Amino acid sequence: MAIVADEIDREAPARRPIEGVAGYHCWHDLLFVHWRVEPAAVESLLPAGLSLDTYDGSAWVGIVPFSISGLRPWWFPPLPGVNVFNEINVRTYVHYRGCDPGVWFFSLDATSRLAAQMARWRWRLNYFFTRMRIRRTGDVVHYQAVRATNARKAGARIVAHIGPRLGHGEPARRLPAGQTLPGTLEHFLLDRYILYACRGDGPLYRARVHHVPYCVNEVQLMACDESLLSVAGIEVEGPPCHAAFCERADVEVFPLRPV
After folding, report:
1. Which residues, at least 6 apart from 244, have a Cβ–Cβ distance to it below 8 Å?
2. What is the domain count for the chain?
3. Structural domain boundaries, residue 107
4. pTM of the predicted model, to two decimals?
């Protein structure tokens, strides 16, 4: 039976899990860039067991560049050389049998070779080693990445101008400016607290992450050239149709569990 997107509980995953934390890190200068695509364009790329999550009848694919600091397991302090790096991921949005809306990553690229190798092994995620720079000057952020471990080169160059907080100038807004409102596209795209993973045709896993709601800024894209989507097997037409920015999120990561 088909699942109606509006019937999925999208607020419960935001509650902090009651199990023990696996690790911690902080995300900085997150840029969310999204395209609307036909569901058929990505459904066949998903692993068995996951269903495509849609908004307004469409699937959404995104590229998210950001930097990470303070990466560490719960039982050990951050290690120099592996706790700070840049990352860019390619993603879409899924659910499991009408529950647990989350993220499916087609690829993740990191500037730490060791972190990429550990994530491929321990977290069953499709990580690659990349060369990537993030440079911010005032309200303008430059992201540039080139994958270094694939014969078919892939990468991205994105320049974004950070605007005011989401919902600014709306005095009757029921949440503070910057927070996404349930039911909106921003809430659908950004408020995701579950990741799914599997290796090849192996079993499906999921993990929870927890952080306070993003403080979201509007964004104007000044440039966006990328080849990561086509390398992942996804074709899009035209420029991105949605973008948003978050300056920082302190994140708790919970253990990877079989679905």
Report:
1. 31, 32, 166, 186, 189, 190, 216, 217, 218, 219
2. 1
3. 33-258
4. 0.95
